[in-house]
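I trust your eye. Have a critical look at both lines of this record:
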Amino acid sequence: MKRLVMHVDMDAFFASIEQRDHEEYRGKPLIVGGLSGRGVVSTCSYEARRFGVHSAMPIVRAKRLCPQGIFIEGDYAHYRAVSQEIFAIFARYAPVVEPLSIDEAFLDITGMELLMESPRAYAEKLKAEIREKTGLVASVGIAPNKFL
């Protein structure tokens, strides 16, 4: 039996939740992270990425690259609650879900071929349900293992 594994990663997860929940952040460079002098970027919106800001970057550097950015500490309890909603959706699509982080997992769909039109169509259905239920965008890759 050929293995089939989906890798699902939520796009700019914390920033996307904030932009979904706060209209004033939409379309603007949003940086979520520790705001102290030693803080780091947890994630940022795609608008902030255009300025070279990325995860794990020191906040001080992010402020130099994107002084017009909106910097917030974030609401990690809220992000965990949204993550639980997303993982509940994952559980409806695969019998084996291996979490990698709060917004990322491997879904083993081996042996489920008879339940789907195609693996791609199944991934598109998963993405559509996540978008419909949470208003967030997921990226999905499909491979015969977790390393491709």
